[in-house]
């Protein structure tokens, strides 16, 4: 059964753009050509949220769908860039949509952080959206988040630090720590970090940095401030900072941990342009294991995060919460796995 992601992939736009078009959302403009191509893909792929939800029969999940309609569900993802295919968030959104459909629900919309900057859009989401629940993917603006919690009957988070709501995710601190321990096991003693600070604007509070520091501290290894690069979660800045560090720093680390593959891959380009080799001169490990990771040059060592499964479990958790299966807000943590490749 076709999903919003299938349409987005075919047309080459973001899932949120497809969502706006098929739901006749006019809060942000979509040019006429793109709108027509989306509707053409809808017709070609046979997309019908209500129909796909009802026709999920045939498996045990399909049977459950007919017995537990969860209604209309909205989704808000924290990424601000309206990219046509975000390599980390896109599989999560696909998992959410499939999970909602398989349990008899309908995905009403997907909005990103940029959408919610509009007061009109926020009004529509919290009062006029008519949804029975919302899945929030990562931290969004606190004012917007509080408004959603006040007006939406059921909220489930993905990697949201709020003990008052059910949440699904992975242990970011332990994932980073595991990657650093892998680098240490390969003989590295001088290890740098590429990451971002998040809403706190303090990189030392971010969980992947804390995992990096914890692994270094436990191994008795020193941290050097010149090797800790705050990229602000921007791939271009990751490239720029890495290149500047390689050009100006006299004593270089033999390895880096990147908090995401997108930052790692852009940093790898800077390493090559500086005339250095990976992993002989600088080894790089990362977190996420997006599809591009194994096709980097060399293939990137990365901690695999079960992105699709996180989305699907979040949808299932919302079903369970609406059926009052949990007396307390449940926190579900999915496992990760290190994928060792040639970059280390």
From TrEMBL:
InterPro entries, alphabetized: HTH_LacI, LacI/GalR-like_sensor, Lambda_DNA-bd_dom_sf, Peripla_BP_I
Record key words, sorted: DNA-binding, Transcription, Transcription regulation
Gene3D superfamilies registered for this protein in UniProt: 3.40.50.2300, lambda repressor-like DNA-binding domains
GO molecular function annotation: DNA-binding transcription factor activity; transcription cis-regulatory region binding
Domain called HTH lacI-type: residue spans: 2-58
A Pfam family recorded for this sequence: Peripla_BP_3
Protein name (record): LacI family transcriptional regulator
Organism for this UniProt entry: Cohnella rhizosphaerae
